[in-house]
Design a protein that fits this description.
single chain, 351 residues, alpha/beta, five-stranded parallel sheet, globular
Amino acid sequence: MIIATSGFYATGSSAIFSLLEEYESCTAGKLNNWQIAGADYEHLLMYTPDGVFDLEDKLLIGNSIHRSDEALRRFHEKMLLLYNEDFLGMGGYKSLLGREFYVTLENYMKHLIQFRVSGHWEYHYGGSRFNLKKMLGSVRRTLMHQEIIGELYKMPYYDKTDDILYSFVTDKEFYALTKKFVYRYFSMLRGSDTKPNLILNHFLLPHNAFRIPRYFDDDFRLIISDRDPRDVYIKLKTDPKLKQPLLPCDNVEQFVSFWKRFRANVKPIHDERVINIRYEDLIYKYDETVAFLEKQCNLKPIDHIKKGQKLNVEKAIDYTQLFKLDNKWEDEIAYIERELPEYLYDYKTNS
């Protein structure tokens, strides 16, 4: 089984991952002994700009003689960047997965690229620069005509020197090739670890869930953790670890407007591989939620041998109902309650 955890930013996916780490049957593969813990690592392969999903959209939706080359080139460049560079919890495939990732990537590209043509498109143009031959020619023409003709020194140059790349793969061809590429990634990450369940945090986003049927078999699960937006807002405003929050939160109106649009942008999907839970339920309804996850992910209670060692519920409860810690937030919390009632957690009933 491949079990991925995800959330909507500060909504508890790491807590779910920590719970899974307590099972003897679960492993983060090579991340178990790497410089970044599995709960903190972002795999990026699929959803990063110019990653797999962008490649899918460009090659299968609105592809053209211009789009094809750009899509292939940008994807390849991004994968090489993630291979060669370690962004402190993102990428670093070379040190994490080894040269096998590079070989797998090049093989994937070889099968995707169907045609090559020597030449350039306008977006390969990099600007202009000094060219001695053109300068001398311009000077000669200027002397002959006794007037300045053209720019004396400039010559256009191109950012690339290799061929134009074309791919007009069918949907069936693309998904077959890409599924093989993605499952090779899983295999590389697992390495020699023989535990049956590979767990990954930040492999997919909730906004990617609708794509799951195109890429993954029945052995895949995505657990999406949701959280009360009142707590999300307070965490963004007060958590010292979030020196620069990545969501709009300068004022509550801005936060609420963003949250509405952000959540409305998630395409609905009804698939047994997608599991939605509340972070709060993991704390206040622990036994029931754990039993539910075990059933959905085919986990055995007997394998839960490190219970409480990774996810300490007594400590985790301190991260709930943050909005009650200081009366100065009362007006802002009341605004969130009026504007986002469908996302609130019912503490009276469940805690």
